[in-house]
Amino acid sequence: MPGVVDASKGQVETGKSDGLGRLLHVPEAVQRSAGLIAGLDRCLLVGFGRLAVEQNQALDALNRVMAGTPLGDELSKALAALRANEFQPRHFAVLAAARAAIQGARYDALLAQAREALGRTVDDEAPVPKTDGNGDDQATVLCESARHWLMELAITGFKQLDAASLAPFSATLENLQERVELGRLASLLTGFQEELLAALPIGHGSAIPVYRWADLWSAGMVSSLQAERGTYTPKVIGKVSGTFSVLGVDLRQHGSFVSAVVYGLFATEREPARIVRVTLSSYKVDALQGRELWRCFAGGKSNLPLLRAIGGHVPLKLTDMTLLASGDLLWDGSASEAGTRPVDVFVLAGRCLAAGGQMRFPTVPPAERHPVQLAELIVLADKTPLPIAVDRLGGTTELTPEDVKAADAVIGLLRFDGGRWMVQPLAVMPGATREKKAFASAYVGSDAYEVATKKPKKGEPNTLAVLRERAGRLLRKKA
């Protein structure tokens, strides 16, 4: 349940509300919509070129649900055309938009449920990104080509994919990657194609991650429509200066990319404090894992103060950083330590995350809303009735399930995954040290600064240094 802090004791006290227990039951509308999406995904699995009675019934259900919405008439026309074997990219784009709209509605419903349980208000202001409307002819051709490829995947069906249907798109991808303004679309489709190619040969349908692939497929369609209209820019509040204190870090990675999403309290002299996100990202190779991931962020000196704050909970003084309406803080200004004394992170979290407060929290633009994007920062001072997201503790974090079991308090992210609410721990306060040390003694990024800036201890790997040395040797040979 949400924690409440007694600042005079420097401890996290147990709240009185049943809080998170309300989240054991998922809203009925959210459950029903999951079945609706599953029916559409089944069409993508078998392919629109071979739909059977079951798939047509699923499309009829989708048509009924979307009737009366802004997409209703267009969806009816698209479905009629598809049943007449009039396969055109625009018809599949309408299907993708309908699926994305349902996911967005599920996000909104779940966010409202979570914030009600946490005693928080939902921000009515939606930070809508805009395009500049300056898309050129070449960008239009590339986006149309992307939609045509995605249409071919839908007609063929995920179960029947092979190299012949996937590889030819590589030439278009190279052109997409060369256009900076199409970077978002290029990154998405590059990852999607690589994942599909890695899955070849396609085995039994039950082994295919249908939901994930359908998500990527629909996101690709919608993103291509946005990219065609010009450069995609988020809504900006402006340049800000103030104090930033880290509360927790979500470290995410796959074979070729790593991101550290840093959650913290940002306070200025003029505006009310708010929770913000700072995201550091870097390309990597699959060999870089575990603690070594922090070395990926050490290339830019501007990152070092943030890594120091992550590892030591030292507050930072920020100057001229860009704040987006979504609550994301772009690390494009300057940062310096605001003191040498570590922040008592659990006391701070209890104050700013307590139920009934007026704190503002990060949001997600409407076009990107999806249940997987839900990540509500919370502090728990009691055993939570919700399951712990154990899968998120392995490999990339210092925390272990044992740390969480022994904890007296937890700072984490409330997430919706696999059809239920779960808690992803970011920091824990072990019960044995509660009276002696109130700040977290086990948390994601506890050694971020040391790993990123210092030489490995004897016996520890230094994979990044080895890779750089080999790359340098190869370049010298070519020269």
Q: Layout of helices and strands, plus pairs?
A:
Layout: E1 4-6, E2 11-13, H1 28-46, H2 53-66, H3 72-83, H4 89-118, E3 130-131, H5 137-156, H6 163-166, H7 170-178, H8 183-198, H9 210-228, E4 232-233, E5 236-254, E6 257-267, E7 274-283, H10 304-312, E8 316-324, E9 329-330, E10 334-337, H11 345-353, E11 376-380, H12 401-405, E12 407-417, E13 420-430, E14 442-443, H13 448-453, H14 463-478
Antiparallel strand pairs: 1-2, 3-4, 5-6, 5-8, 6-7, 8-9, 8-10, 11-12, 12-13, 13-14
User: Major β-sheet, in short?
Assistant: 6 strands, antiparallel
Average per-residue pLDDT, rounded, comes to 87
> What form results from the Cα inertia axes?
globular
**How far from one another are the termini?**
62 Å
Overall radius of gyration: 24 Å
- Range of helix content: 25-40%
- What is the structural class? alpha+beta
The ordered string of helix (H) and strand (E) elements is: EEHHHHEHHHHHEEEEHEEEHEHEEEHH
Structural commentary:
With about 475 residues, the chain is of the alpha+beta class. It has 14 helices and 14 strands. The chain has helices spanning about 30-45, 55-65, 70-85, 90-120, 135-155, 165, 170-180, 185-200, 210-230, 305-310, 345-355, 400-405, 450-455, 465-479; strands at about 5, 10-15, 130, 230-235, 235-255, 255-265, 275-285, 315-325, 330, 335, 375-380, 405-415, 420-430, 440-445. The chain is globular, with a radius of gyration of 24 Å. The termini are far apart.
